[in-house]
């Protein structure tokens, strides 16, 4: 058996976990659910030796422990797959899977032939075929995850934690991941999932533990819980999904005009325009080019031909700086590497892109105004912190995502591009974030939401472009935007 018995943990004065107990047995597939900041990652960190509990017991097989080091956790079979997978980008697939074993066995010299053999065996155990010699930086995110799982297996995993492991995967890749998890089950590995996507949770998990503010509010077999019951235990509220898109603005000016932009191997002849107050959705499967189009509009992917103009003025998108000075804001999907200065304070992060607005005539920063703005965003976006001067690392994953949103909203751009705005955000807060986006549209901002979250697109967009192999393959407007019509276009 694995789990905890009465674990508590506080950071400063704030209790992240209070008397938390949960259990899984070998071969279980368990879900750990809860709102942003409810304590899921903290519980995982305690079981993997990264954080020390204030009180309570860690259960690992026959052992009952007060605390453990990361090394002991690995030796006892605990492995965690974090969102960034902790792989070494410039090494090959084979080296990433096998190297840690070399270290564990204290081999002095790396033996390439043996690395390949060990890696091939581990991949074979999970039924996955990958190019062993490809560098990890060159393979897609879904493959990186499989490499991380193979490495965990190679290190003798008995208890596998996956903290928001499916956020960057397409449906097909999730299917593959789930079949790998089922094969781990047959080998007696217990898997614990953290995910905000309730439909996936219900599909793969057999049992569930739900946290709210660090306290277990419900647990049991997944069959006892429907979607409503899970979100009720998470939030204490009844969350319903309704269409939030405001009335389409009729006679506002075009703010963003994109004409025939192309980038070789990424996207081709993409054209659209967005009016003030309009919310345009762009969707497509992973690899369709949707992500590249979003990045191109912020100057992060080169546009080789075609034109982008803001308020009638053509702009040269040479990089994020040129996009920002043209009035374009961008909320990236990958908040951990693109969105935040993790070691800097929440306050600095929120202000990072708006700082010019707070320069007084003589170049003095208007401190009081900054404080007001930061406090407003912390309140409006319900960023869970007791002090905005704490570093961004002190926030839970979903709260870091809110800081990225706050940072760009504070800049008040004319065009805001949101790439996966609610990735990693719990379902109660998702609604609130979409409402804030809607309010920004009502104030006249032109908004582009790039997302593969179909219910979200249906809730918020006035118009949707579907991208397929780098080209716009369909355009749906207003009442034609339904979940079934979009799924149909995606599958076409
Ligand atoms: N190093 C730290 N210093 C201060 N507070 C922390 C630290 N790590 C976590 N916390 C706080 O503990 C609480 C629980 O955070 P945790 O990361 O476990 O949440 P989570 O359930 O994983 O949320 P999410 O879904 O957003 O990832 C939060 O209020 C967070 O701000
Ligand atoms: Mg977390």
Provide an overview of this structure.
This protein has helices spanning 40-47, 70-75, 93-104, 112-125, 141-154, 171-186, 198-204, 227-235, 290-296, 320-325, 335-339, 346-351, 367-380, 397-410, 427-442, 454-460, 483-491, and strands spanning 2-11, 14-24, 29-34, 55-60, 63-65, 78-81, 159-163, 190-194, 207-212, 215-221, 254-263, 267-275, 279-283, 305-310, 313-314, 328-331, 415-419, 446-450, 463-468, 471-477. With 492 residues, the chain is α/β, with parallel strands linked by helices. The protein has two domains: 2-235, 3-Layer(aba) Sandwich (Rossmann fold); 254-491, P-loop containing nucleotide triphosphate hydrolases (Rossmann fold, 3-Layer(aba) Sandwich). The strands form four sheets. A six-stranded mixed β-sheet has the order 6-7-8-3-9-10, with helices on both faces. It has a six-stranded mixed β-sheet with strand order 16-17-18-13-19-20, with helices on both faces. Helix 3 crosses helix 4 (112-125), helix 3 (93-104) runs parallel beside helix 5 (141-154) and helix 4 packs across helix 5 (141-154). 45% of the residues are buried. The model has no long low-confidence stretch (mean pLDDT 86). Bound molecules: adenosine-5'-triphosphate (ATP) and magnesium ion.
